[in-house]
Amino acid sequence: MENEKFGKIGYLMYNIYVKSKKGAQMKKLLVIAAVAGFAFAYTDCAMCHNGSMATKLDKLTPAQIVQKMKEFKAGKGNQTMVGIAQGMSEKEIEEAAKKYGKK
């Protein structure tokens, strides 16, 4: 049985979290998985980069963002960002860098 609101993956992750003896670590994993799982995450960088969760992108130039995204796309660094970057085309990376980078 799955929860209609969260779907199969959300239900599975919730059950792992609830049944886990390492609740704090699993809670972090659950949050990361939820963020990484959003199909639209790469189109709305502000989801994470607007608060204290991740580096504010308006402090980086578009060129710095593009360089960092290339590193992520190559598999280096934060695995959540690696997954997001690998799902983006070069054009999408350039557009996001212009949209969110320092003006």
Description:
- The chain is built from 6 helices and no strands.
- It is mainly α.
- The chain has 2 domains: 1-37, no CATH class; 42-103, Orthogonal Bundle (Cytochrome Bc1 Complex, Chain D, domain 2), CATH 1.10.760.
- The longest helix is centred in the first third of the chain and has 15 residues, at 23-37.
- It is globular.
Annotation keywords:
single chain, 103 residues, mainly alpha, Cytochrome Bc1 Complex, Chain D, domain 2, 2 domains, 6 helices, 61% helix, 0% strand, globular, disordered N terminus
Order of helices and strands: HHHHHH
Hey, roughly how much beta strand do the residues contain?
under 5%
The CATH superfamily name of the largest domain is: Cytochrome c-like domain
Uncertain segments? 1-6
Distance N terminus to C terminus?
49 Å
Question: What is the CATH fold-level name of the largest domain?
Answer: Cytochrome Bc1 Complex, Chain D, domain 2
Tally of helical segments: 6
Helical fraction equals 55-70%
Q: Please name the CATH architecture of the largest domain.
A: Orthogonal Bundle
* Overall pLDDT level: 75
SSE class:
mainly alpha
**What is the overall silhouette?**
globular
